[in-house]
Amino acid sequence: MDTGTAYGLRLGAPLNDLAQVGPGTPYGEVLRRYWQPIAKVEDATTRPVLVKILGEDLVLFRTRKGAPGLLHPRCIHRGASLFYGGVEEEGIRCCYHGWVFDTEGHCLEQPCEPELGLHRDRVRQPWYPVEEQYGLIWAYMGPPEKKPVLPKYDTFENLAHDEQLIVDDNGVGGGGPAELDFNWLQHWENVMDPFHVPILHARFSGNQFTPEMALIPVVSYEYTPTGVRSIQHRDLGDGRQLRRVTEVMFPNLRVVASPKLSSGQTNMIGWVVPQDDTSFRIFTVARDADPDFLRKLRSTHEGKAWKDLTDLEHQRLPGDYEAQKSQGPISLHSEDHLTTTDQGVAMVRRMMAKQNRIVAQGGDPAGVIFDEAERVVRIEGGNYFEGAPDAPLLAAAVED
Ligand code: FES
Ligand SMILES: [Fe+2]
Fold first, then answer.
1. Does ligand 1 come within 6 angstroms of the Cβ of 97?
2. What domain range is 346 assigned to?
3. How many domains does the chain have?
4. Shared-domain flag, residues 75 and 222
5. Structural domain includes residue 140
6. Which terminus of the chain has a smaller tally of CB atoms within 10 A, N or C?
7. How far is CA 151 from the centre of its chain?
8. pLDDT tens sequence across 289-317
9. Among all ligands shown, which has an atom nearest to the Cα of 86?
10. How many CB atoms lie within 10 A of CB 124?
């Protein structure tokens, strides 16, 4: 008799406590305890835009005085959307009856009421605090009494005179659209999966990065105070050893040095920001002298850019997008068969569940900073060469 057939297959279920991001969900509450990048600074203008973050629809704008504001879109008067509002010196005016709200939701004016609203200070448009840093707008969407300081990262401090910060919100390096249409965790936990690199990005689909990355590494993992770290050793066969360190930092940072192997501490960090349970964006900040640094990092597929691939080429040369989206809108984690090389993924999931418990019990999750003096976060991830340090890299397999 045949065994193991698909007859009667049960599909299983996601780890919703980790994957879901909406208000009141376990990990949604963890995510809300940290500042999140929500847009590039240039996206906040006097024309309001709708943004979706952690399952919430919000309106982002910039007053004529230059302050960014992030408000709940439904006007507290009678519900018209502030997307149709007009931006003024100090705030935004609802199109319907003209109430004006500042960036903290204070009602400044009710033009049809006596004296522009004798009781206007009794109402408040729901709002979130925002700050601008590293070319991004950051929002804090959690409980006000738990608001941490907005961290800085040593990677982005003290730029050399020829360096600049480069910001990108354009999908995954391995190819894909800017707005990714599947659950964010499939991408984030992939950061602790160094073994997909020599398979997916090399043996299967041709060298999408460099020949060194095609070597199967020897990997160890460790918990850090702020996340999980992988330490990958590759013997390059020419007297050099490559020690590549990648990190996930809570709640959704990816610290992955260039897979094209620039040497030393990584010059870039990414934030995997859920829009809702089945879509996310990745905001990446890099420091480099070349303003095109991030664009040049994108993997190529037999010389072609991801967006130019035919259906057949997507199937024949899959990258991160094809692999991770095909896990499903939200992966059915209960059906996974984790093995020794999934240790990093298992550690991420375990540490996420621990943060859920900490937050549910009223504690502070890993890495939130309340002390201004501890605001600068040290980043360890990078590519570190040992052996003959000046030996050139193997010729790059693909041209930009
Ligand atoms: S609905 Fe906004 S002012 Fe009336
Ligand atoms: Fe990848």
1. yes
2. 149-386
3. 2
4. no
5. no
6. N
7. 15
8. 999 998 888 877 888 888 899 999 999 99
9. 1
10. 13
